[in-house]
Amino acid sequence: MIPAIPFICAPGYAFAEAWRAALQAAMPLERIVALESLDDHARAACDFAIVANPDTRDLATLAQLKWVHSVWAGVERLVEDLQHSPVEIVRLVDPQLAQTMAEAVLAWTLYLHRDMPRYARQQAAGQWLEHDYVRPQEKTVALLGLGELGLASAARLLAAGFQVSGWSRSRRAVPGVQCFAGDEELPALLAGADILVCLLPLTPQTRDMLDAPTLAHLKPGASLINFARGAIIDDQALRAALDSGQLAHAVLDVFREEPLPAAQWQWQHPQVTVLPHISGPTDRGTAAAIVAANVGRYRATGALPVVVDKQRRY
User: Fold this and answer.
1) pLDDT at residue 255, as a whole number
2) How many Å apart are CA 299 and CA 285, to the nearest integer?
3) 285 and 62 in contact (C-beta within 8 Å)?
4) Which option is the CATH number for 96-274: 3.40.640.10, 3.40.50.920, 3.90.230.10, 3.40.50.720?
5) Is the bond into 259 cis (omega within 30 degrees of 0)?
6) Helix H segments across 35-115?
7) Terminal CA-to-CA distance of the chain, rounded, Å?
8) What is the pLDDT, as a whole number, of residue 122?
9) How far apart, in whole angstroms, are the C-alpha atoms of residue 147 and residue 149?
10) What is the rounded CA–CA span in Å between residue 23 and residue 18?
11) Digit-coded pLDDT (tens) for 135-158
């Protein structure tokens, strides 16, 4: 009998059963179960698990665990927890996620491009006042990160008529995109950006990357969208840039602590739009199909899918 596959998530996760059901539907010949339903004998037979922000103490109950398949694309916390463990990590690589994120990048770029925050302030003040229209061809959207998410976002932005630039650690060549690479070229990318979009993974190199000296390279009045991880931005440097007018507006979907505590300054700042981490939600249907394909290949060949580099953290 094929061992059951445990789905392990954070305690109290509201969508645990929905995920288990989606995974079961995608793998009808497998048995996807909650960890707590397995006795010690069944746990000893498990060499892999499907996870969503699991408690490492739960993973430790699986003595033969070789690898885990996350249903998220972002796995920095899991990498931190398993940094010194032999357990391998497979993250979700879902083309649908890239398209969903690209849709959000375009939507909130247009929000800033068409001056929606200004018109919202005017409505609150009862002001009927129009402003000059600027064509998208006159705006440069700069993408920090040219991986799957960045490439999909670049395509949407180019189709909408924007000038697009992009930055990555190593050199990339993307049709229609002015590409920058490495720390030495980051200031030039920032200086040309009207709207800066952060799509980078959180690594030791990107933590606090957008600090005061880095933000100072942006042209006065630029705007920022962070759809990556909250810890990439120095919050106090961001607040100072907004207060000084260096930044006109920030759309923030991710924060160092989530949910964002009620006392945090971002909630009330007039130049900040707060979103509840909704820019790139995982589609359970497409994600479950991808996990199922990876599990099927593993059952058939014993070969693991592509695993996360724990040093690079993605």
Assistant:
1) 98
2) 21
3) no
4) 3.40.50.720
5) yes
6) 40-44, 56-59, 76-81, 95-113
7) 34
8) 98
9) 6
10) 9
11) 999 999 999 999 999 999 999 999
Res 313: pLDDT = 81
Q: Please tell me the pTM assigned to this model.
A: 0.92
Q: Are 174 and 166 in contact (CB under 8 A)?
A: yes
What's the pLDDT score for residue 288?
98
Query: Which residue, chain included where needed, has tokens 């799509």?
Result: 199
Q: Which residues are within 8 A (CB) of 170 and not within 5 positions of it... i.e. 6 or more apart?
A: 181, 182
* Largest distance between two CA atoms of the chain: 71
CATH topology of domain 5-94+282-301: Rossmann fold (3.40.50)
Q: How far is 83 from 103, CA to CA, in rounded Å?
A: 33
Q: Comparing C-alpha atoms, which of 124, 156, 161 is closest to residue 143?
A: 156
CATH 3.40.50.720 residue ranges in the chain? 5-94+282-301, 96-274
**Active site positions, annotated:** 229, 277
Quote the CA–CA distance of 102 and 219 in Å, as a whole number.
24
Contact 51, 69 (CB under 8 A): yes
CB within 8 Å of 212: residues ≥ 6 apart = 234, 237, 240, 241
| pLDDT at residue 312 in the model | 85
- Predicted confidence at residue 65, as pLDDT, reads 97
Residue segments in the chain with a per-residue pLDDT below the cut of 70: none
Mention every residue, 6+ apart, whose C-beta is less than 8 A from residue 211: 234, 237
pLDDT of amino acid 216 = 98
